[in-house]
Design brief:
By secondary structure, the chain is an alpha/beta fold. It has 20 helices and 32 strands. The strands form nine sheets. An eight-stranded mixed β-sheet has the order 12-11-8-6-7-14-15-25, with helices on both faces. Helix 8 packs across helix 9 and helix 11 crosses helix 12. The radius of gyration is 24 Å and the shape is globular. The structure holds 5'-O-[(S)-butoxy(hydroxy)phosphoryl]adenosine (WT7).
Length: 629
């Protein structure tokens, strides 16, 4: 992927005139405001917090920054669901559609801001009736439905901390997350739609919570199914039917935890990234508004799942806080036909479409005749997120989805950053393959090991110089792991990515500097996959690397030393892959399994994945002086 980016490095495209002339922010205005925002970030965020959010009580201090910890809007009181729902309902938007849900059979459900508020309140009251209190954690394992979004918001309504687990994760992975978060309550759907079939979620919850006494109640959205509920189980619809549709929003402190979301690190254990209320609310609100040039009546479609940060920030909190209408589509992008997405854009006149490069590459492969069948002229802004978008995919997106008439924003950010950190704003020139410039209020740099800025186009570490409102506050129960973000490169937030900066300051992301992989834009740790592999009884030792993949961006290759007398045949490979599926989920299943006699190690016993990778790709392994054998 990287080679392709480099070969088309110099391509610059202007934003379409009709967008340029109407956007919230021109390049010149940006330059001016950016300078100010960096010179006095506290003033910048203070002004925005007053203008963009509704507060129950004003804060008394904008920021407290005692390296490596920080707090924002100290002493302020608010509730994010008030900013996302009540204030719109109170301001004439009660009947505006908040979400248009579509399933794989094109059945739609629309819910207005007024109705959503009532649904959230009923679930919130239901949670209260089960004894859930402010500060408790609730794990959510649901299909992408309005009920899922309402359940998430219901937690925030009463100050419970939500921990959403993506429905593709296995029972083992779910159990680990429930236990780590100490969730006494789990909310799940009976199933999710996937390519015309039902993918079971409830049975996975059964397995994940078996003999797990910690879990007091499991709330089940049975959907159209009818099944017997066991002692600790509660039906979501039943629970709601008994509740009032009024629930006063819990008064939250700015720094009260809003949610935890697990993401992969370099050890086998995922980390629970924790975000708090006010800073996250402001930052996701503001980046939604600016990156997607929101005026207030847009139809927005972010194709992520709320199980990932993109869904938290740009399906739920950012769009709702701005009071716009969002589309959500459960199920496969290409079922029942490869043009499912394009027919949805046509039908609902979607203005802003936000997806991942892996999806763009998949659509590219399916062919331009599919989008061509539909009227995509409502589109104004196209977004990309999750991994570097290669110029070839960028240009296809621009031509065949954007009809050369849209602005493309390639947004770089992370679970930890809460919202967009680097992108172009819609009026800017774009350079396919380069994400762009830092967002307002964000100071980034590309530096070498000593902390000096690298020269133009020289590879270095991507860092952020100061805390921003939606920066993670801690890793759940692991403060030392949190500190590493700020101490690994002394004084900076180190994102874990490699990057370059060109002479206009445009940043190109080259990929991770650590032992994590990006599979279809989802971060997976090599250590996590390796521990899933060695959990198989035939596997003695495992090493995992990422390989370039046409659609997924990266795929996994595993090198395994088997126990004595174990067979190295196809059957064995399949059984090992199955083990990874049940330990982690299908995202993490290796595409390649190689049985080997030894693994390249340093004299201190560390596996040299770099050597494995070079070997597999027929490249020069570089310096191997530390290699043991
Ligand atoms: C990592 C964060 C942000 C939500 C989805 C992923 C990579 C993300 C881009 C982009 C190049 C990107 C980085 C980052 N990444 N967006 N536009 N261009 N790389 O969230 O799982 O927390 O992963 O995704 O490597 O560090 P995540």
């Amino acid at each position: 992927m990287t080679n392709k980016i480099l070969s088309e490095e110099s391509l610059t495209l202007q934003a379409p005139q009709h967008i340029k002339s109407q956007t919230n922010l021109s390049l010149d205005e940006y330059k001016e405001r950016y300078k100010e925002s960096i010179k006095d970030p506290e003033k910048f965020w203070d002004d925005l917090a007053k203008k963009e959010l509704d507060w129950f009580e004003d804060y008394t201090q904008v920021r407290e920054w005692t390296y490596p910890n920080y707090q924002w809007f100290l002493g302020g009181k608010l509730n994010i669901t008030y900013n996302c729902l009540d204030r719109h309902v109170n301001n004439g938007k009660r009947n505006q559609v908040a979400y248009i849900y579509v399933d794989e059979n094109s059945c739609e459900v629309k819910i207005t801001y007024g109705e959503l508020l009532e649904k959230v309140n009923k679930i919130a009251n239901g949670l209260k009736s089960l004894g859930v209190k402010k500060g408790d954690t609730v794990t959510i394992y649901m299909a992408m439905t309005i009920e899922q979004i309402a359940s998430i918001l219901a937690c925030a309504r009463i100050g419970a901390i939500h921990s959403v687990v993506f429905g593709g994760f296995s029972a083992q992975a779910l159990r680990l997350r429930i236990e780590d978060a100490k969730s006494e309550i789990v909310i799940c759907s009976s199933y999710t739609q996937r390519k015309g079939k039902k993918a079971e979620l409830k049975s996975i919850v059964n397995e994940a919570t078996k003999d797990l006494d910690l879990v007091r109640k499991i709330i089940v959205d049975s959907r159209d199914e009818n099944f017997e509920l066991f002692e600790r189980e509660v039906d979501l619809q039943d629970l709601m039917s008994k509740q009032s549709s009024i629930c006063k929003p819990e008064v939250m402190d700015s720094e009260d935890p809003l949610f935890i979301l697990y993401t992969s690190g370099t050890t086998g254990k995922p980390k629970g990234v924790m975000h708090t209320t006010a800073g996250y609310n402001l930052y996701t609100h503001y980046t939604t508004k600016m990156t997607f040039d929101i005026k207030g009546d847009e139809v927005f479609w972010c194709t992520a799942d709320p199980g990932w940060i993109t869904g938290h920030s740009y399906i739920i909190y950012g769009p709702l806080s701005n009071g716009i209408t969002s589309v959500i589509a459960e199920g496969s992008p290409v079922y029942p036909a490869p043009d499912r997405f394009w027919s949805i854009i046509e039908k609902y006149r979607v203005n802003i479409f936000y997806t991942a490069p892996t999806a763009v590459r998949m659509f590219m492969k399916l062919g331009k005749e599919w989008p061509k069948k539909h009227d995509l002229s409502s589109l104004k802004i196209l977004g990309s997120v999750g991994e570097p978008i290669n110029p070839e995919a960028w240009i296809w997106y621009h031509k065949h989805i954007g009809l050369e008439n849209c602005a493309i924003v390639d947004t770089w950010w992370q679970t930890e950053t809460g919202g967009h950190m680097i992108s172009t704003y819609p009026s800017f020139d774009t350079k396919p393959g380069r994400a762009g410039l830092p967002m307002l209020g964000i100071e980034v740099d590309v530096i070498d090991k000593e902390g000096n800025s690298t020269k133009v186009n020289e590879v270095g570490f991507l860092v952020i110089k100061q805390p921003w409102p939606s920066a993670l506050r801690t890793c759940w129960g692991e403060p030392k792991r949190y500190e590493k973000y700020w101490t690994e490169i002394e004084g900076f937030y180190f994102a874990g990515d490699l990057a370059t900066k060109d002479d206009d300051g445009y940043i190109m992301i080259l990929g991770r500097a650590d032992d994590t992989l990006s599979i279809s834009g989802h971060r997976i740790g090599t250590a996590e996959v390796e521990s899933a592999l060695v959990a198989h009884k035939a596997v003695a030792e495992a090493a995992v690397i990422g390989l370039p993949h046409e659609i997924k961006g990266e795929c996994i290759a595993a090198f395994l030393i088997l126990m004595q007398d174990e067979l190295t045949n196809e059957q064995q490979s399949l059984s090992i892959k199955e083990k990874v599926r049940t330990e982690l989920g299908s995202l993490a299943v290796p595409d390649e399994i190689h049985f080997v006699e030894t693994l390249p190690k340093t004299r201190s016993g560390k596996i040299m994945r770099r050597v494995l990778k070079a070997n597999r790709l027929g490249q020069d392994p570089g310096d191997t002086s530390t290699l043991e054998d």
